């Protein structure tokens, strides 16, 4: 009976964790309709071999409008309440050099008290060593309304796909994950949901590609609810022993 109840609890946890989620796999032939330029248009944004490839042409830098527009990307509006956002990004650490910012995922953060205005930009971005803070090693950096964090996470897989994830919870704030490891939490409360996503990369005068896959977004229950359900299933078993 215990195994049965725990199995039911775990099944419910797994179901809730995926309920309400949309995954865009970027398979060959898929449409990219709905994606629009953010800041300035990258030289390429297309699906190749079942991967989304964002291309940077070094000849486009410096941008005549200013350094702000040397960040080139595309954005997608969700059109629904979203508190969970993740994507797989290939970190080309052999070719992405120290001293430079590269690519990542930006959430378009909103606050339900004033939803017409952007409340923040939760960001996970790969940066070469010393790109922002001279003492920082190469790794995945985090951004909130206070700016770039003092530390970067080195828990990335070199020359491989890595999962970048943002999870907005009412109890903890915006949680930033790298390969399912929590690396930072923004507890300011500025952002309580996400209205869209931006995929972009920094153009510093050198051409390179960024590969993405499996963009997932939607509304999911908060982590504490999963634990509570499993605990409740165990208590039911104990009461009926």
What is the number of strand segments?
16
Report the uncertain regions.
Answer: 1-18, 226-241
Main sheet properties = 8 strands, antiparallel
Structural class: mainly beta
> What is the mean predicted local confidence, pLDDT?
87
User: How helical, in percent, are the residues?
Assistant: 10-25%
Rounded to the nearest angstrom, the distance between the terminal CA atoms is 9 Å
Spatial extent as radius of gyration: 20 Å
Overall outline: globular
Question: Percent of residues in beta strands?
Answer: over 45%
Number of helices in the DSSP assignment: 2
Secondary-structure element series? HEEEEEEEEEEEEEEEEH
Write the layout of secondary structure elements.
Blueprint: H1 2-18, E1 21-24, E2 35-39, E3 44-48, E4 51-56, E5 71-82, E6 84-91, E7 101-110, E8 118-120, E9 123-127, E10 139-144, E11 147-153, E12 160-169, E13 173-178, E14 181-186, E15 193-202, E16 208-218, H2 223-239
Antiparallel strand pairs: 1-16, 2-5, 3-4, 4-16, 5-15, 6-12, 6-16, 7-8, 7-9, 7-15, 9-10, 10-11, 12-13, 13-14
Helix pairs in contact: 1-2
Could you characterize the architecture of this molecule?
The chain crosses the membrane at residues 215-237. It comes from Neptunicella marina. Residues 1-19 form the signal peptide. This is PEP-CTERM sorting domain-containing protein. The protein has 2 helices and 16 strands. Strands 1, 3, 4, 6, 12, 13, 14 and 16 form an 8-stranded antiparallel sheet that branches. Strands 2, 5, 7, 8, 9, 10, 11 and 15 form an 8-stranded antiparallel sheet that branches. It is mainly beta. It is globular. It starts with a helix and ends with a helix. Residues 1-18 and 226-241 have low confidence and may be disordered.
């Amino acid at each position: 009976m215990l195994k049965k109840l725990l199995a039911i609890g775990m099944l419910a946890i797994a179901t809730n964790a995926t309920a309400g989620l949309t995954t865009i796999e970027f398979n060959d032939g898929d449409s990219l309709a709905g994606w629009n330029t953010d800041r300035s248009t990258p030289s390429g944004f297309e699906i190749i071999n079942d991967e989304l490839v964002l291309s940077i042409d070094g000849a486009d830098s410096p941008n005549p409008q200013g350094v702000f527009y040397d960040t080139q990307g595309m954005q997608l509006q969700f059109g629904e309440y979203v508190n969970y956002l993740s994507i797989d990004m290939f970190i080309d650490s052999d070719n992405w050099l120290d001293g430079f910012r590269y690519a990542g995922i930006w959430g378009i953060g909103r606050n339900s008290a004033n939803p017409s205005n952007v409340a923040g930009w939760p960001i996970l971005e790969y940066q070469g060593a010393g790109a922002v803070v001279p003492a920082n090693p190469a790794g995945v950096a985090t951004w909130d309304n206070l700016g770039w964090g003092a530390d970067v996470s080195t828990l990335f897989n070199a020359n491989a796909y890595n999962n970048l994830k943002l999870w907005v919870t009412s109890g903890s704030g915006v949680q930033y994950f790298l390969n399912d490891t929590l690396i930072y939490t923004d507890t300011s409360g500025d952002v309580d949901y996400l209205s869209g996503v931006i995929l972009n990369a920094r153009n510093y005068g050198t051409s390179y590609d960024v590969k993405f896959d499996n963009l997932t977004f939607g509304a999911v229950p908060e982590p504490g609810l999963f634990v509570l359900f499993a605990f409740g299933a165990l208590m039911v078993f104990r009461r009926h022993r």
